[in-house]
Amino acid sequence: QENPLCNDNNNNTRLEVFESHNYEIARLPNQISSIGTSKSCRHELIQYENLNIFGTQFHPEMSDDGKKLIEKFCKL
């Protein structure tokens, strides 16, 4: 599925992000998609249906890719 936060020149539709927490969303409702993961968590960045409604539980400020994500988010 397409989303404005993950799409790049390599046609990526998911991100791998930095995380620093011990919590994880175990299951997502059908209308929510996981679009970002980390080494220890499957659902770090989520999107509600195909709308510009997103949720995170990671620290985007901790990596260069995360900073690019913040820039894309601000342009929505």
Give the SSE map:
Elements: E1 15-16, E2 32-37, E3 45-48, E4 54-56, H1 64-74
Parallel strand pairs: 1-2
Antiparallel strand pairs: 2-3, 3-4
| Assembly state of the chains shown | single chain
What do the pLDDT scores average to? 79
Q: Which strands sit side by side, in order, in the main sheet?
A: 1-2-3-4
Alpha carbon gyration radius: 12 Å
Keywords:
76 residues, alpha+beta, 14% helix, 4 strands, single chain
Tell me briefly what this model is.
It is built from one helix and four strands. With 76 residues, it is of the alpha+beta class. The longest helix has 11 residues, at 64-74.
Report on this structure:
With 76 residues, this protein is of the alpha+beta class. It has one domain. Helices cover 14% and strands 20% of the residues. The longest helix has 11 residues, at 64-74. The radius of gyration is 12 Å and the shape is globular. The model has no long low-confidence stretch (mean pLDDT 79).
